[in-house]
Each structure stands twice: as C-alpha cells, then as structure tokens.
C-alpha cells in the first residue's frame, strides 16, 4: 500500500465471511431504556427535568472543578459523602454516591441478586427496574398497581417468594405520581422478611407535600433491610451531571460500593452536589413553585375529563389507555413533548407556568379536536 507523506495509510478490511463475536443469548429479552425525546423548538415536558438551569453558585462550582479535570476524581466521593452525612444527619459509612441513582439501582441489584433471583416492583413504575434486573441475570417480577395509580403494597408483599431478594418501592411513583404514606410503608415493611432488601426510590422526595410522608433515609437507618435512593437530577436540577446517593445499613452500603464502575462519579458532579447542598433553601424554594403548578395543571386536566392521580412529584399522569399515543402525537404537533407509555398513559412534567400553559392549550385542543 502506498502512503503519501503526512497521510495515514488506508487499510481496507475484507472478509469473505463475516462473523459476529458471541454475546449473551438473552439480550433480545432486555428492552432498551427509552429516554424522553428532545425536539428543537418544542417545550420538553418528557423527562421530569427542571426548567431552570443550575443556580449561579452551583454553576461556579462546576466551572472551578473544570480546571482540575486532568486529575481523576476522588474514587469514594469523600467530600460529597461527608457533606451528605452532615446534611442528612447520618454517618458517612451509611452513604454511598453513584453516577445517578439509576446506577445505584443497578449496583444494588448486582450486589444482592444471584442469577435467577427475583426483583419485585409495582408496575407501571420506573422503566429501568426490569432492564437492570435482567442485566444482572435476575428475574423481574412486576406487580400491577391499583386502578388509581397507587402501588399495591399488599400485593407486592404477597408476591414475595423464596427467590425474592430485592423490592423497589418507587415513592412518589414514576410515572403515576402518588406517594406511599408512612403508615402504609410501615405495615408493608413489617410483612417483608428481613432477608429481602427493600429499596425506597425517592427520586422525587423533595416534591412531596403529603400528610404522612415517608422519610426513606430515616427508614434506612431504622431497619436492617431498607435502603433509600435519592438524586441530584430532579429537584436539584443536575440531570446532565449524573450524581445520586444511597443510604442504608453500613454492610449493605459496602456491598453496593463494590459494584461501582470506578471513578464514575465525576469530579464536576461531586463539586456540584456539594454546592447544591450548600445553597440551602434556594433550591427548596424552586420546588414550591413546581408544587403550586402541579396543583393548577392537575385541576385543569381533571376539568378536561382526565382522571389524573394525585401527584407528589414534578409530573402528572394521564391514564389515557389506548388514546395515549394519539394524545402524545397531538401534543407533539403543538410543539409540546410529553412522555408516552403506549396503551397505558402519558406522563407530563410540570415545567414553568408558560410551558404548562402550552401543555394545557394542547390538551384543550385535543378535546375539541383542533
Ligand atoms: C429519574 C429517576 C431516577 C434516576 O435518576 P438519576 O438521574 O439516575 O439520578 C431514579 N428513579 C426514578 C424513579 C426516577 O424517576
């Protein structure tokens, strides 16, 4: 092959027979995670993100950390964990940070499940649960929600078998919205054998304003088989940076930590997480605005005839059944991107008032057929 000075040689591979390397034979059974769509020029209410960008103090911390990205991050996220320890009022040994709480869900399944063990969860719920269970060679066991979109904790407890190792309780539940009450959770946890780990997925914890709320971190300190998952992606507005945390019994935290992809919590994410906690009430005030809009949007959708469950998160659920796809594409036509679960319903993130008005205009036009 002739090589001209300054140009790399072009190598052409040719095979008479093409063979693919062997991969797992069960991959076809693992669905891919479907992210919310981003459509240029449209209002995006599909991924439960916050509309406003990071606070100036958080953006400054990220910029400062950017100057140091030639170095590997602290593999233990030590400074973030100790800031969380102070913030949550629990020891550092009961906390581990992860590359988003979804990574911690995956580490948790890997840490507690042997191949063939069962992972229980209400359904619909967070669509990552069945995927990560299968990735870990575990068996996903969905338990249908009640008709009003609440988790059926009695049915979940009834579904525990000798093979069950892990139960995800998503509260508030994504995508339907309701939260479990403390009394319901206590009755449930009292029924679950202690050898089974219960993971309280509190990705939307900061939006809860219910009467008898669950505090997953407190539960995870009080029970030997309970862990809590929280994230900086939703209320704290850091979805693009990927950082969340898990709290629970120290031994379990150590086991979950062993499953981590080394250095997966970046130095930018660690610095931003600390800055969010340092920002104190500022971020909590933003959640109050979303909560007020949540009530307004839900009421308006109910007026339009939708049976919207009471949501404790930053989204609402429209149980449209077979009309879900039609509603979703109608909204897309009005440049509002929602999240469609075909045949079940549509989840709509609560954005700022202008965005929410766009959604409500589209929903009204759906009724009038315009
Ligand atoms: C968004 C979400 C998460 C994941 O958040 P990360 O961005 O990975 O921290 C986890 N659980 C539920 C239920 C969610 O909706």
From TrEMBL:
Cofactors required: pyridoxal 5'-phosphate
Record organism: Dietzia cercidiphylli
PANTHER family given in the database record: HISTIDINOL-PHOSPHATE AMINOTRANSFERASE (PTHR43643:SF3), HISTIDINOL-PHOSPHATE AMINOTRANSFERASE 2 (PTHR43643)
Keyword Transferase belongs to the record: yes
EC number: 2.6.1.57
Record keywords: Aminotransferase, Pyridoxal phosphate, Transferase
Gene label: hisC
Record Pfam families: Aminotran_1_2
Protein name: Aromatic amino acid aminotransferase
